Protein: Cyclic di-GMP phosphodiesterase Gmr
Amino acid sequence: MAKHKFLDWGNRSIIRKIFTPMIIVMVIQAILFSFVILWGGTIEQLNNNALDILNERVINRKNYLENEMIQRWSNVDESVKSINSTVESVLKEKNASVQDIATNPALPEAIISSNTRNLIYLLRKNFVTGAFIVLTGNDTNYELEPGQSVQKTSLYIRDSDPGNDVVDNSDLSLERAPVDVTKATNVTMATGWAPLLNFSGDDPDASAFYYKPLKAAAENPDLAYSDLAYWSRPFKLNSDESDVITYSVPLRTDNGTIYGVLGVEVSTDYLQKILPNTELDSNKNASYLLAVDANQDGSFQNVVTTGTAYKRLAGNADHTTFEDDPYYKNIYGIKKNERITEDALGAVQYLNLYNSNTPFSGDKWALVGVTTNKNLFAFSDMVMRMVMIALVISLAIGLIGILLAGIHFTKPITTLVQQVKKSNPRMPVNLDKTNITEIDELAGAIETLSQDVASSASKLSRIIAIAGIPIAAFEINKVTDEVYCTDSFFKMLNLSHVKEVADGLNKENFETIMLSLKILSQDFDSQTNVTVIEIMDQNKQSKWIEIKLVEDDMNILGVIRDVTIETLERLKIEHERDYDILTNLLNRRAFYAALNERFGAPETLKTAAVLMLDLDNLKYINDTYGHDFGDEYIRSTANILKQFASPNAIFARISGDEFYALIYGYDSKDQIRPIISEIRQRLLNTAFPLLNDPELKIRASGGVAWYPDDSCSYEALLKYADFAMYQIKNSVKGEFCEFDSKSYSENAYLLENKEELNKFIDGNLVDYHFQPIVDIRDGQIIGYEALMRSRLSTLKTPMEILALAKSQSKLHQIEWLTWFNSLKALKENQEAFGGARMFINSISNQLLSSDEMEELEQLYQPILGQVVVELTEEERTNESFTRKKQRYIRNWGAGLALDDFGTGYNSDANLLFMTPDYVKIDMSIVQNIDEDVNRQKLLQNLVTYFKERKIKIIAEGVETISELSALIRFGVDYVQGFYLGRPNLHPQKLTDEQVAEILQLNEEARNEV
Structure:
């Protein structure tokens, strides 16, 4: 059965427009009704009534319980007087005092025996379940330590049914009484009888009824005994019995001497009987809770509960904690915990059991009516549910009525719609009359419009054909499955043979025709919803068609456009963008894109090699034969690399003389190494004849990094391959080298800090710090060594800077920085230097040009005589440069020093060749000189040799007083090291203490001789 048009809620029909306001009005009425009932205060008032009823019932029961506890159970005035009188009579009869109770064993039993009637009278009169007298004896300690226990003479009588008195006392039982007393009374001994009452420090609650009133009486002798009374927490007298609570008061003589405790007990079973939970809820879903709040923090210790409702809520919990703020009047929410997971309330009513400012007034006893929110508000919840059910039913009835009326009202319109659907879109539409004026007018307008649309479509097709725009369109009617195509549609797709049936196409035939189209490639852009397909035209040339679809509930409209010219232009631009013009290899951008694509699918890489090549002779060819030859040299290299291009190998030209390659998809390195070796061999075997060198071979240095052994990141692999190439190019050109992680960790900075060195040199980012050189005889500073310090954090030490400069052939720039900056610093610190000399580290195989030397002399001629030039031993000496430096030194009146003697190249030969003024003994000899005999012998020989030739000796790296002392003994002239002073931006003097220490060491050395 077809769905009625009105029931299609996605359709914006006229009937929907009419009846929507009706539905809205009905819903608003329902909402207002619900608001008045549910949120207008009715439900809240029902809930408040339930809370008030709970509160009133608890108040009534609290008043009754409070009256019982104060007026009946704790009414011991008469008994206290009778017992005190009896005790005085016994003491008088025995000619004894209260103190004798502790020492005369017969006296306590006489007192207990004499007061049996008084205790039974108290038990009957107060309607309690027990009464007791406990004598203190000689007990003056009112607290028991854990593990401590005491026994007291006592009389403890119980009545299991306080409301039923028996004349012969057969309903009573003796719980505690001396043996003689049990024989003298006609009261039956209980099953758990014992002659003495035992108290243990391990159970303080069981002894509190005795000790607390005693302690209060001792601390407050001026208070009446009624103000010293104590209501105890629940405890068991015997382990197999129910809990009891007690009310106890101290017993004192007229002179205030404490001799015992009198009290009554009420069992929790009896309390449960007088706290019926059914008065709170007839369904027993509420409980009474008698509890004590000792700290006024809302946390109550449970005394007794009635019914099962509390146990269902909290189990066997011994404490109940309430929220700080009241839920309603005296009703508080019960805090949830691991056991209490349901919302519950307690109507808390405090019992006034103690007078204010009495010892136990801090114990707040309360009667609490406990029930769950669900139970308490059950009636209001039921009312709310009934209102909601009534609301839903009324809405449903209203909606059904509206739907039925709507169907009846829209029937003529749906009939008209069906006629329109079944009509032929290419033919004028003729519709039946409905005899409804508005609808018949609409039908006439539709008939007129259909005629105009057919005419417009024909005009549009003719206009497109005349304009020669390569565009066509088709439309698929989802309802009728009819397909309409413009005249040029099939011609544009090279499907002219189907034009004969185009006028009678349906969806199935159209799809069959389109599936027969041979598509060479297809590209879909999800953002623009455009598809571009590649097909073959009549001349067997590629042709690109752009297809764009627009779909709605009724139709699929498609527009196709011939974009062949645009596509060819785009492909040309992309090729120029991605390929190097000179070599037709991938350029840097395209190569990185290819790497990103392949490393995005690592399963296709397997084992892969990243190869970096750098042409060795390009600069020579460019400089000697011109850049045209250089370009041809690059093209020849690229042509060799193209011979190895495959689905598993891509090559790219990155810059002038650098090429990259990725060889991937192999199972092991051993499968790739022959390919790399063949590339190298093919390069070496390819001649590039030049005018003066017809046998010149193409030569390149290469570095290889492996995936995944070296890294899984192509950025890292490129860097590693670059490092490997850099290493081999700076050692043996024309070879290929695989990446070595150990070498990288040691020398990576040579590659990574290329630009940093340029930045260092160009920005003159260097300071010179000065370390004192001290005369070992008197502690005077004869000079300072200027030590290079980089301002760049990436260049940490002078050794790194020199190594970088050497690798990049920039030692000359470092030599220039050293001379000009150190002399500038000397000039700025002339006052601090005084007459001291400045030792400059000059690179032995570097020499400033004559112009640079002339500039240096013009700037710093007055202070050049203070300079001592240290020729470093790290580099091989250039004899010619050294001779020139010596001439400059003589002309300036400066000095010459041989640095790091004993560690560099040809130390002995340099010594003979240079004849320096100073020789600096390397710290490798100085360290541990005070302990190492071999170092001592070597130093002695050197000192002897240098002394004979009048060469001053400077010992470097002195770090301890022991080393300094040894150097003094061996006759060294000067010393330098951290022990005497660290390098500083401004020259520092020795302290008086340091000078005194040097003089002292010299004195000790002379005394040893």
